[in-house]
Amino acid sequence: MNELKSLQLGENTIQSFIAAANLGATYVEFDVQLTKDLVPVIYHDFLVSETGIDAPVHTLTLEQFLHMGDNSSTSSQKSRPASPTRSSANNKSSLDPLAKRGRSYSVDITPNASHSDLAERMKHTRTWKEKGWKANTRGAFIQAPFTTLEQMFRELPLTTGFNIEMKYPMLYEFEEIDLDTYAVELNSYVDTVLAQVYELGGKRNIIFSSFNPDVCLLLSFKQPSIPVLFLTDSGCSTVGDVRASSLQEAIRFASRWNLLGVVSAAEPFVLCPRLVRVVKESGLVAVSYGTLNNVGENVRAQADEGIDAVIVDSVLAVRKGLTEREGERNGEASADGVVGGMAS
User: Fold this and answer.
1) Rounded distance between C-alpha atoms, residue 231 and residue 263, angstroms
2) Same structural domain for residues 179 and 213?
3) How do beta strands 161-166 and 27-34 pair?
4) 86 in the same domain as 215
5) pLDDT at 33
6) 327 Cβ partners below 8 Å, 6+ apart?
7) Which domain holds residue 84?
8) Is the pLDDT of residue 305 over 80?
C-alpha cells in the first residue's frame, strides 16, 4: 500500500496531462524546448540525463531525443517474456537483456528495482549530483515516452488549456550548466514555437510563461493575442538577472511591459498571504507554483487573499480540500476558480 501511495505519472508526459484534465485542471503546465532540428519538444531540464550522460536538449535531433526517452525504460522491459506471436528474431529480446524492447505503459511489478536501476545509471550525471533525483523517478512511477508539442495539441482535449512554459537559459545559466554555445538563437526559438501554436492551437485557451525575461518581452512584442506570465522564484534561489531576483522586481517588470501577471514560487505567498493582494493591486494576475501548493492549507490561505490560480501536482487532493471548504461555506461544492487553475 505504501508503494501505491507514492505512485505517480511521469512529469511532462501525455498520460499525466490527460489525468490532470480528467481530475479537473483547467490548464496543464509544461516546458517547451527546441531540438537541434528545431522541433518543439516537452522536457523540463536543459540536460537530458536519463541514459546516464548529460546531453543538452538543443544538441539532439528529434529522433535522438525520442530515442533517449525510449532507452530510459528499465528492468520492466527486461523481465517480461516475449510474446509467442513474435518471430524467433524478435524473441532474442527474451534472452538478450540489451535488446531493444517496446516501452511499457503499465506499472512494473517491481517498481523499486526499476527506480534503483535508473538511479544507478544516472548517478554520475550533473542533474543527479546536484538534486539527487530526476522528475520522473521520485518513488514508484508510471513512465512514458518523451513527447512533442505537436502531440500535446493533437492528443489532449480542446477543452484543456495550455500554460506553455518557454524554457530558454539566461546568461548566468549558460555558465552554471556549461553551455558554451546555444544551438538555437532566441528569436528563432520564439518564432518556431509561435508558428506551431498558431498552426495547431485552434480555439484552445493558451497562456505563455517563462523565467527568462527576454523571452517574455519577445512573446509580448511578437504577438498580441496570447497572454504572457512572468515566472519568478521570488528570491528562493540565487539568480544572475535582477529582473528575476525578487517578487518586487517581478511585479515591476511585468507591470512595465504590460504582461498579464506573475507566477511566483509559493513560499512568499504562504509566509505572507497578503502579498497576493499586492500583486493584484498592481493590476496583475497572481499565480503560484511549487511543492508547498500540494498542501491544502497553503492553497486555502492564498485563495482567501484572491489568488487567481495555483499550479499543483496533487490535483485531486487539493481540489477535494478546497471543494470541502467551499461546501462548508456555501452549502455547495465549487472550487473551480482556484484549483481549476493549472496542473504541472
Assistant:
1) 5
2) yes
3) parallel
4) no
5) 96
6) 333
7) 71-137
8) yes
- Set of cell numbers at residue 187: 528569436
DSSP string, 68-96: HHHHT--HHHHHSPPPTTS-TTGGGGGT-
Number of independent structural domains in the chain: 2
> Residue 193 is which amino acid?
V
Residues β-bridged to residue 18: none
Answer yes or no: do 121 and 158 share one domain. Answer: no
Least reliable range by pLDDT among 140-149, 218-227, 262-271:
140-149
Where b means 16+ CB within 10 Å and e means fewer, 222-261 reads: eeeebbbbbbbbbbeeebebebbbbbebbbebbbeeebbb
Name 255's Cβ contacts closer than 8 Å, sequence gap at least 6. 282, 283, 284
Do 113 and 250 share a domain, yes or no? no
Residue 318, domain member (yes or no): yes
Of 116, 137, 158, at which residue does a domain stop? 137
Kindly report whether the global pTM for this prediction surpasses the value 0.70.
Answer: yes
Residue 298 has pLDDT above 50, yes or no: yes
Q: Please identify, among 137, 155, 181, the residue that sits at the C-terminal boundary of a domain.
A: 137
Same domain, residue pair 176 and 254: yes
Q: How far apart are CA 139 and CA 122, in angstroms?
A: 15
Is residue 159 domain-shared with residue 20, that is, in the same domain? Answer: yes
Q: Is residue 66 part of a domain?
A: no
- Mean pLDDT for 180-199 is 90
DSSP-derived pairing of the beta strands 228-232 and 261-265 = parallel
Pick from 293, 334, 329, 325: which is nearest to 310 by CA? 293
Q: What is the pLDDT of residues 90-127, one digit of tens each?
A: 443 333 433 333 333 333 333 444 555 666 666 666 66
Strand partners, 207: 163
Confidence of residue 316 (pLDDT cuts 50, 70, 90): low
Q: Which of 189, 130, 127, 181 is nearest to 164 (CA)?
A: 189
Helix ranges (DSSP H) in 208-291: 213-222, 247-256, 266-271, 275-281
Lookup: cell for 340: 481549476
Furthest CA-CA distance within the chain? 69
